[in-house]
Every structure is written in C-alpha cells, then in structure tokens.
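Hey L., structure's done. Input below.
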Amino acid sequence: MSLMSKIEAYLRTRKMKETRFGRLVANDPRLVRDMRNGREPGVRMCNRIENFMSDWKPR
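Output:
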C-alpha cells in the first residue's frame, strides 16, 4: 500500500480533514492536497507521516 493510500484510509477512518492532518503532521495545511497533485515528500517527512498515523490518538 502506498503512503498516499495509507493517508487516504487514515483520513476516512478518523473522519479528519486533510488540512488538519497536514497541520498536525507538518504544520502545512496543503500537505495532502500537494501530495495528491504529485508532491513527493522526502524520507524524513514520510517517516513523520507514518509515525503520526501510528501514534496519534484523538482527544
């Protein structure tokens, strides 16, 4: 499964808006939209995204 597929599934299951996800992960509300449009995050950002999705718990 690609990172983008994992993000899309995460957003659906958590009912989280893409802008909120981007802000929480990278302080970048356009992160997900830019990735949908071809932006390729570096290794460090990919790791941050993966770690966030595995660690984040809603309040």
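The chain has one domain: 3-55. The radius of gyration is 10 Å.

-- N.
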